Structures are given as C-alpha cells and as structure tokens.
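Subject: Interface between my chains keeps coming out wrong

I've been trying for a while to get a sensible model of this assembly. When I model each chain on its own everything looks fine, but I need the whole thing in one frame so I can look at the contacts. Pasting all components below, labels as-is. Any help appreciated, I'm running out of ideas.
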Amino acid sequence: MSFTTKRRILLPLAAAGIVGLALTACTGDVAAGNKAETDCSDYEAYGTFDDNPEVTIGGTIQDIEADRLVESWKDFSTCTGIDVSYQGTKEFEAQIAVLAEAGNAPDIGIVPQPGLLGRLAAGGWLKPAPKAVEENTDEFWGEDWKQYGSYEGTFYSAPLMASVKGFVWYSPKEFKDKGYEVPTTLDELNQLSETIAAEGDHKPWCVGLGSGDATGWPGTDWIEDYVLRQAGADVYDQWVKHEIPFNDPQIVEAFDAVGEIVKNPDMVNGGLGDVSSVISTEFGDAGLPILDGTCSLHHQASFYEGFWPEGTDVSPDGDVFAFLLPSVEAGGEKAVTGGGEFPVAFSEGTEVDAVRAYLSSDTWANNRVKLGGVISANKGLDPENASSDVLKESIEILQDPKTVFRFDGSDLMPAAVGSDSFWKGIVAWVSGDNTQKTVDAIESSWPKS
Amino acid sequence: MTTADLIGKIIQVVGGLAIFAAIVGLLFFLLDKAPRRGKDYWQLVVFLAPALILVILGLIYPAIRTSLLAFTNNQGDFNGLNNFVWMFTQPAILNTLLNTVIWVLLVPTISTTVGLAYAVFIDKSRGEKIYKALVFMPMAISMVGAGIIWKFVYDYRQSGTQQIGLLNQIVIWFGGEPVQWLQTSPINTFLLIVVMIWIQTGFAMVVLSAAIKAVPVEQLEAAEIDGTTPWQRFTNVTLPGIRGSLVVVITTISIATLKVFDIVRTMTAGNFDTSVIANEMYTQAFRAAEPGRGSALALVLFILVLPIVIYNIRVMRKQREIR
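Reply #2:
Try treating it as a single job with all components included. I did that and got this:
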C-alpha cells in the first residue's frame, strides 16, 4: 500500500472518528432515580406508571432556576415513573401561540401572564384543569389567584410560583447611621427622599428601566404600584380591564406622582448620571449604587435579591434590605402587585393530569421553595422554607388575609398595550414627553375588539 | 439519549437518504423509458416539481396568507382596512415609515458612492488586496455583532467619569460634554444608518472594483488619446461600462436596507423614534400579539420592495438584449 492510498483512507477515517466523538459527547445516559431509596409516601396519590410515559414542559425559566425546577420534581418522577422533561427558552412567550396553532406545543406550558393564558384559551388550545388541580387551588389559593388562572368561567390552571413587586431596596446601615426611618406612608417616603436630596451628598433614588427590547417595563411596575395605592384596587381593576380609559385622570395622577421621582433631576439618578441615564441603565445594574453609598432607594420586585453581588448581606441589619412601597395611609390594608406563572396543559392524559396535580400541591410548593430563590402564594407553604428574609417576608405578605393582591397590570392588559405601547410610552415619557401625551398615545393603541 | 439511540438515529438518517436516492434514481430511470411523445414535457415536470413545490409552500402560500392576515384583527376576524388606518394615524408608526424612507435613501447612495470612490482610488495601486480586505471585512460581521460593536462606540457615561464610548471620548477631547447618542432623536437614526453603511460599503466596493477591471483598456486608451481628462474618462467611459453592476449593487443594498431589523433591534430596540418597518412588524406580530397589524406592515414593506425588484429585472433584461 503506497503512502498516498494510505492517506486517502486515513483522512475520511479520521474525519469520521472526530464526528463520532463529537456526537457521543452530546449524549449522556441519564441515570434513573432509585425508587427504593426515595421516600415515596407523598407521591402515592398520583399513582404509578409502569410504562414510563413522558410529559414535556416548556417555559421561559432558564439556567439555575430551570435546574431547580427540574430538581423539584425529581422524586415525583422517580416514584410515579413519569418522565418529566423541561425545556426553557426566552422566546417561549412569542412562540407558544404559534406552536399551539401548529399542534406542536409541549404537554404543559408554564405561562407567565394571565393575558397570554386567556389568549391561548380563546384559541381553544388549552385543556381545562382536572378535578385534583381545582381542589388544590380552592384549598391553597385565594379566589383572586383562581380568577387569574381562569378564562371566561373555565378554570385552566393553578398558579405555580409568585413574586411580590413594589419593594423599595435600601441600606439598613445607611438608615441607621443617618437616623432615617423606614417610611410608613407615601408622604413619608417623599419626605425621606427630600431629606436625602437636601443633604446634597448624593441623589436619593437610582432607577434603571433598560432591558433590551423590553426596555421600559420596570417603569410600568412603578405606575401600577402607584395606581393600586393611590386610586385603590377597584380603579386598578377597571384600568386593566379598560373599563376606564388609560388616560383617566386617576391614572394621570399616578404618572405624575411617579414622575416626581423618576423624572426629577433632584431625585435621580444616584450614582448613575442624570435623568437620561434612567432609560440607558439596565434594570439589573440600577440598584447596585446602594452598595457604594451613592444611592439610597431603589424600587424593584423581590427577585432583585438575586442581583446583588455574591457576599452581599441581605437582611434587616445588613448591607441591603427592602421595605414594601408604603400605602397612602399608615396601618391601612397592604396593597401589593405581583406576578406568577401558570402551568397550562395542551394535551390530556392521566400522566399529564398527575403532573398538573403535583405542581398545584403544597408538596411541590414546599419542595421548590426549599431549593431557594423563589416563593409561591400557596397557603400550604411554610414561610420557614424560604431561602432569605426578603422571600420570607414576601410569603407572609401573600398569605396575610388582609393583603390586597393584584396581578401585574401590564400582564393583564392586551399584549399590544401591556408588552408594547405601555413600555414604549414609559420610554418616551421619561425621555421628555408630558404625561397627557403619553397616556393619550397608550389609550389610542388599545386594540378595539 | 443513549449511545445506542444515537447509532439508531444515524442509521435512520442514512437509510432515509438511501431510500430518497433510490426513489430519485427510479424516477429518472422511468423518465428515460417514457414514450417518445411528450418526453420533453415529462422531463420538464419532474425536474421543476421540487423547486416549484418548495416555492409554493415557502413563498407563495405565506405571501397570500400574510396578505389576508393584514385585513384581520387579533382574533382573526376580518376588520377591513382598520390595520392600515391604525398604521397611518399612529404618530409612532408614521415615524417608523419615515425612518424607513430615510434609511433607504441614505444607505444605498452613500455606501455605493463611497464604495465606488474607494474602488477607483485603490485600482491598480500597490497593496490593493489589503486595502480591499480592510473595507470588505465588516461584511463578514453579522448585523447583530456590528450592532453590539457600534453600541459600544456610542456608549455614554456621565461626564466626569471614564468614557468607554469612542465617540463621546472624541467629543471630550474637543472639550465637549458627553451625549446620550442613541437616545437623542433624530441624530440616533443617522448613527444607526452609519452602521449599515459601514457593513454595505465593502460589498459595493468589491463588486464595483471587479466591474471596473472589466472595462476594456482599449476604450480607456482611445479616450486618453482623444485628450480627455481623468474625470471625463471616468464619467464617459468607466461609468457607462459598469452601469449594470451599479444597478445590481444599488438594488441589492436597497432591499437589504428595507429589511433592516437586526441593527435597530440590537442597538435601540426601536425606542427613541428609531424604529423601522421590519422591526415594528416583528414587534407587532409577536410581542404585541397583533398579527394583523404586523402583516399589514409586512404588506407595506412588500409593496416598497416591489418597484426596486421590477426595475432590477428590467435592467437585466435590457442588458441581455444588448448582448
């Protein structure tokens, strides 16, 4: 065999070898959990499936949060024999309607907005909730949450996780050193802001509304918080249902109250620049100046805890902590906005029903919350399982019967407003448009049905 | 997936390909044995069918469906011209249409002019290849990549702190104050257009440079003997000689500009009055869940591209006739 022929054979062989190696690298033999070593007493109610049926779940949850999600049903999977596979993508919200229409949706989709749930239900793609899910919901959730999982009288899904919006992050150390008190009314909050501004050391608030093509959404949370607190829950409901127009005077009032902070050069933007930096700063970076002492107050949901750098002490006496944006009057009922996810089913079957029942149970809520980072509004949840003080406080707020909870308004509005013109309106408003022009523009974009 | 699964799948793929090849071979064999009468016709059908089916499925059907969707609301019900009324009454959308017009006027003209000038100046110079590569390189960068690179160039830090944006640093060297470039309308639209020009100039330059080299030397020499100035030679000999290539370059860049989406979406996401039709189309159809409005915008885009395509085809045809 001459050298050239040898080479002629060697080259394809080498290529095939490389491809083969690369392909085997992509596969892994997934080890099944050991049923004998797992405590299956919690999962007996869901039955056992000997033929190992697969249930696919899709959603927007990614990275470490997705790992924890998968971990939360590991034992369930081992005990019942149901193979639950999860796939997360950022484009889930944009794609799910297309997938459903084409008949390619996963068995269960974790939908983060009641508005999207309604849209999918209106398309006739969703399967109503089985009896076990409804029973769990009646037992563990309030009526308001059940409504968010329903569409036109049909109940589709129990909530999964929850988040509490409208926290104001601050530095307990700074407050202690300078003798500031945590405000109990909105007026006190404004006085506090003015006090900090008057000391001239730094601007009191740091705000960042940047979020790629979703820039502006943190601003919608501000507006929603103020509408709920100033105008009340009834107006809030009318507003998101478009029973009052978007340019109603009560909404204008909320915009103006927020504008006193985010558009006021005396109030923003601590450690970040002038008012124009409110939009250009990414929401994830916006609260960090609190750690340098160049900013005192930052408005963001409970999830912001995950954005502090490693080693930050998040506790009532630590580097940072959060108080709930106060209501108009002290001691009144607590009004909070928040968000949550809803696992909706696109296909039927006993194994899908079993997974849905498990996800709506208090067992799941405790299992998932123990893994850290999130909370649930499930009343069967033990607050002690929460991974931090802020999350513990959030659970207590959600479980308090006196709390008035309202879902994030922009998630309830039609997507043309809630995830388009409202965001764009906030950006234009902070960039200099006046309130009336902004609310008029958003009102005119509301789809006429 | 286990290794055994993987091998099974590979076998499936190889088997599928083999079956496909066998069917195609059989088809050709039968075609060869077809009766002599109408044989040409059958051959035509068999060879055209795959392309035709793909064009119908992938182009004609979606085009018709999009056109129909443009007249429906978000529930899929017919709503007449409402989407178009919406488009031409919302100030934000009117601004989007205006921006698209600015883009399509500036990008093709500037990038073709600059590309042509560059091609002429470096023609037959020493190191021509290197000069060409330098300008052509941005072509190899994806639009999203280019958007991110230029976002850094335009980056803003408050005055007094270290600037990381080149443009603001230059402003400071000249004693100015840093500017929020991407948030300042209308200059931000022009700054985005610069990115597109930066990408497209290389394409124009390479095609036009090749065309210039194809202009017959005899004609240029004849003109030189007649006593023309270099400028006259350029306008009267070179330009007519490369007219075909010029049209192709301008139309290609125009269509690419009309479709521009990535740059706008990466750099401003359509905020601060910088949106263009393609970006708004996506936003409406997918984020705002208004497929009707998105389709209406797509239809407008289609109508805008149409004259350019028709003109391109007509020029091509005329050239073929000359030959």
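Reply #3:
Confirming on my end. The two ends of chain A are 79 Å apart (CA to CA).
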